[in-house]
Design a protein that fits this description.
The protein is an alpha+beta fold. It has twelve helices and 63 strands. The strands form 16 sheets. The protein has a six-stranded antiparallel beta sheet with strand order 1-2-3-4-6-5, with helices on one face. Strands 13, 14, 15, 16 and 17 form a five-stranded antiparallel beta sheet that branches. Strand 55 and strand 56 form a beta hairpin.
Amino acid sequence: MVLTSGIKLGPYEILSPLGAGGMGEVYRARDTRLDRSIAIKVLPAHLSRSVQAEERFHREARAISSLSHPNICHLYDVGDQDGTSYLVMEYLEGETLADRLRKGPLPLEQVLRVGVEICEGLERAHCSGVVHRDLKPSNIMLTKSGAKLMDFGLAKSAVAAVGAGSSCDSLDTMSRPLTAEGTIVGTFQYMSPEQVEGKEADARSDIFSLGAVLYEMVTGKRAFEGKTTASTIAAILAAYPKPISATHPMTPPALERVVKACLEKDPDDRLQAAHDVKLQLKWIAEGDSTVTPPPSSASVPLLRKLILSLGILLAGAAIASLVFWSLNSAPLPVTRTVIMLPPGQRLAGLDQPCIALSPDGTHLAYVAIEGGTQQLYMRAMDSLEARSIPGTEGATGPFFSPDGQWLGFFAGQKLKKISLSGGSAQTLGDVPFPLGASWDRHGMIAFAPSVGSPIKQVPETGGSPQPMTRLEKGQVAQRWPEFLPDGKAMLFTAGPTSINWTNAQVGVHLVGTGEQRNLIQGGTQPGYAPSGHLVYAQGGSLMAVAFDSKRLAIAGAEVPVVEGVMQSTTSGAAQYSISRTGSLVYIPGGVQASQHRLVWVNRKGAEEPVAAPARAYVFPRLSPDGRRLAVTIQGQDVQLWLYDLSREMLTRFAFDGKFNTNPVWTPDGKRIAFNSNKEGPVNLFRQPADGSGGPERLTTGEYLHFPMSWSPNGQVLAFVEVNPDTGYDIWTLGIGDRKAQPFLRTPFNESVPQFSPNGRWLAYISNESGRWEIYVQSYPASGGKWQISTEGGTEPVWNRNGRELFYRNGDKMMAVDIAAQASFTAGKPHMLFEGRYELPPGTTPNYDVSPDGQRFLMIKPSETGETTTQINVVLNWFEELKRSVPSKQ
């Protein structure tokens, strides 16, 4: 929270702000009881609801409270007022070491004095069993009374014997680790190699950070720097800083040896304790910079190595500089690490992408659920904290602008963007069923708005979306667009079905020409790597193939390069992202199908669970008597199952083919129509519901067919045909003569035809207005036409009494009263309930209504199962990619 002058927290009166950082706002205040100046630290507003930030805040208080030393900022008090937690600390007058270093390097005498004071503060902390873990110039205050260590927010209890030194009189026992194996904690430029690799840090990690601080005090330059996070981390892991003597030849050799000994990559090779570093700095300050002091027992192996290498160090700065140049000219090493989400957060979604790297690899956006709220979070890759982005509640599918200054996303069936420098989210257009987006360098955003629609484009400033691609023969949907860097071509995924993407195609569209080419069969969600590779997901692995971005052609064999990447069989979404600079992030998990629960929901929104086990359910259809349920279950295959609601028994219904879905009961409940690929193209079949016979073919055609609704007498089946030229069209099939004829075939998409209970009306959805809306037409003659929904709508289902028509608008279940008269009259839409239930992967309704019209059978995301909280990071991944899959670039 922001505090203004005069506000009181307990007995402490706020005077003025002192500064703010990612984890705290600090104010100068007055202790009204003792009449002294103090500093107050509170959590910033954007972290006030973060469980992790609150824990870190209190951890800092516990850490400082156990320490009392002239070189550590004192903690006087802690408190909480109206939900605002605060720390009361010593008010320090002076400047941070970071501020001082902006003016240049420190004089030798000051380097040694400040270095000794830092060591004494660290020594006290380590002896008390506290590891700082974030030692850096901005956390060191230079005051008249000496250097003071600040900000123990990342401190942890540790075994004091490890790296604490022999001067410690007591040992504290280790508390549970605050860092999971593989989690980075610390500020990148000053982190030890073990911290970079996500390993547990002990006191020797602080010694490494101390070495980096000493190096910077002497030279005025950071010990480890790079143009990107990846190159900085690679330098920490594999390179050594430029020798101090190369730029500051008057530096005592002993000081250079001490700094180098602190910066050894292996913790066992470092100086082992702050006490040892302090003694050596003191001896150097006393003027004997050539005599090595008696070593502590922990330092003997290291000092032997230093003596052996001393001649090499003195051979001259030229050789050292050459070695450093050669190290930095070699390819940077591939570095793997792990980001763990804070406690209470979990990554949101399997069927929609939920992670995105900025083009330069410096920021990670992810979608997480915390406290029941799903929203976007942003984390700088060189930071430990992620911040929530206000105004992104309900977000999915994040993607960056080419300059990394904006973040696009979907929320509330809208395409939106938000500036990373602040401000409100801006709406760019309607998107009923978002299926990916990409932002090109010319200011256009390509997005997949729904199943059955080609990929569209809209200006980054907003406007009317325009078709960009076209559905070709055998394609039901296109999704996951990805512009190539020059914006002249776009990769995308096309699929033959709406609910299983194991056999999808990766294609490329030439912008502005209408030309499309198929590149890969059996892949999804393509990405382009500037190393000259096309990357895509297949069977839970990332595949790569050499790709000529000028000819737009693959140039070799596909090779698996990363295994165990989370991938949805339902949508084809793969949870990975690549930066232009060579970083890869992905969520582990392999191929998965979403696990859902079936629930009854009454008209007021109250839920009652169905006993059926959690499965990847879609398209539930109740039998006419309401006793049985036909439902599709997704996996590597897509199959129909029957569930007996009274006996609580689940049995498989169709056995031929790998794709059987979209069940529709005949009015008498004796048969079920469905579509299947059992004999080639996805056409219509029907089969006895009691299992007494096999499937009977109803249609034969080259295009995809989806059954939707039977006429009340069971003699006509309304279905949808997907035609590359006209899109989704409504057809009817006479069962007697097996003659199919078009009912609605327009340049727009029409789908989900639903016969009214009296057979006189046909409800359906159309995007003729630019978005999906519900319409009703008379039947069999297509004369009268009425628009039912007013603000968008999908999934129409009739109440079996014919007096109501239900539909969904996002998470809202809507109802419209229908007059039971000779002429058709519709009332005003009104909401029955709102809830987070699964939207369909296509246009087919993903719910059904009980025969009495009082309950709705909905599909609810399962709350059980393993929570996903881990993001894997591979820095400089392109080097590995080029070795595994050679390309000409």
